[in-house]
Write a structure and sequence with these properties.
The chain is α+β, with helices and mostly antiparallel strands. The chain has four helices and four strands. The radius of gyration is 21 Å and the shape is elongated.
């Protein structure tokens, strides 16, 4: 199979995929903030939470639900900042995945990624990496930082020089 990537481009493609996977796993895990409440361990992320308090109206008390789950709706996310974080981080993960999968396809398809396309993909990757704020926090942030720094730099050298056809 012909490839449209240089050796640096192949490294970029695989590293991009690993960074995107780390960012997405971190985004979906509910372990961004850890703590305790009502003597129970609690954690939550941008749109998921584990061990959360619920008001029991029949007994007029607050009980802890010891399971992980998503919020019932987008509006149920506790604050506007966390809603914005969910959207922006999700968009960043989507951009990182888009570039990573395109780069992996460049390993198998000839003339898919030129130098210009590689540089544009690096710019998109940089933008995707800046969309993350944040065990899940470090995973998301680490994947985003690697995408911003290493992968963006490697993307500049990923595509082969286009052949000039004499017509």
């Amino acid at each position: 199979m012909a490839s449209s990537l240089t050796c640096a481009g192949v490294v970029w493609a695989f590293l991009s995929f690993l960074c995107a996977a780390a960012s997405c796993v971190g985004f979906f895990m509910p372990y961004w903030l850890l703590g305790s409440q009502l003597e129970k361990s609690v954690s939550f992320g941008t749109f998921r939470r584990c061990s959360y308090p619920v008001r029991d109206e029949s007994r007029q008390t607050t009980v802890m639900v010891e399971q992980c789950g998503r919020y019932a709706s987008f509006q149920a996310i506790p604050s506007a900042e966390w809603r914005i974080c969910t959207v922006v981080t999700g968009l960043g993960c989507g951009l990182l995945l888009l570039v990573a999968l395109t780069a992996l396809m460049g390993c198998c398809v000839s003339e898919l990624i030129s130098r210009t396309v590689g540089r544009v993909a690096g710019g998109i990757q940089f933008l995707g990496g800046t969309c993350h704020i944040g065990w899940a926090y470090y995973c998301t942030g680490g994947g985003a930082a690697a995408a911003m720094l290493v992968c963006t730099w490697l993307a500049c050298f990923s595509g082969k020089k286009q052949k000039q056809y004499p017509y």
